[in-house]
Amino acid sequence: MEDVLKAIEEETKDRVPRSRLNDKNEEIKELKEQLASRDSQLEELKKQVTDNAELTAKIQKLQSENEKVVNEYEAKLQQKEFDYALEGALREAKAKNPKAVKALLDIQAVKLTDGKFEGLEEQLKALKQSDDYLFEADGIKGRTPASPSGGKKSAVTKEQFAQMSYAERSQLYTENPELYKQLTTN
Question: What are the b/e assignments for 105-129, b being 16+ CB within 10 Å?
Fold first, then answer.
């Protein structure tokens, strides 16, 4: 029997014992599970990195959009300030219709700096010379016409008023409404 045991032992000496084989199989399973776990973690990290890149891109996009909105808002505020100041300047220049005068101005050549306009004065002077009807007159130019009666108001009596034609009465009404009223009420 010893011979048989020795023969079995010789044949099995290159073999791994079953318990050790089972242990190695368990180790392999655990390592595969760990690899699978790490692979899934890597995939999650990849997604997070992608998401972070997407999030970073979205944040950058939102920041640029916000910056654009702020710039547009500031431009609108500056334009409103410019328009308001221009309307004030046109009122000071005694423009009858500021909208019409503004349409004739070269707005691109006009700059607002520290509340003062550059390039507006010259354009307004040129417009006053070429299109003076757009502006109110500074005052009556020339001399005052003389009255036909030598500067005295002619007094009309009731008898004279009664003998006047309709055209003469109408003329009196336009020239001297107070006298006309006195003559018609008494």
Answer: beeeebebeeeebeebeebbeebbe
- Judge whether 180 and 169 are in contact, CB under 8 Å: yes
pLDDT digits over 113-158, tens only?
A: 887 888 888 888 888 888 888 888 766 555 555 555 444 455 788 8
Whole-prediction pTM: 0.44
Contact 117, 111 (CB under 8 A): yes
Q: How far apart are CA 39 and CA 49, in angstroms?
A: 15
List Cα–Cα distances, 179 to 151, 152, 168, 184, 186, in angstroms: 17, 14, 13, 9, 11
Contact 101, 89 (CB under 8 A): no
Kindly state the DSSP code that residue 132 receives in the 8-state scheme.
Answer: G
Range with the poorest average pLDDT among 58-62, 125-129, 173-177: 58-62
Instruction: Look at residue 150 in the predicted model and tell me its pLDDT.
Output: 46
Strand partners, 113: 116
Do 149 and 176 contact (CB within 8 A), yes or no? no
**Residue 120: half-sphere exposure toward Cβ, Cα within 13 Å:** 21
Residue ranges in the chain assigned as alpha helix (H): 2-12, 18-92, 98-104, 120-130, 158-162, 166-175, 177-185
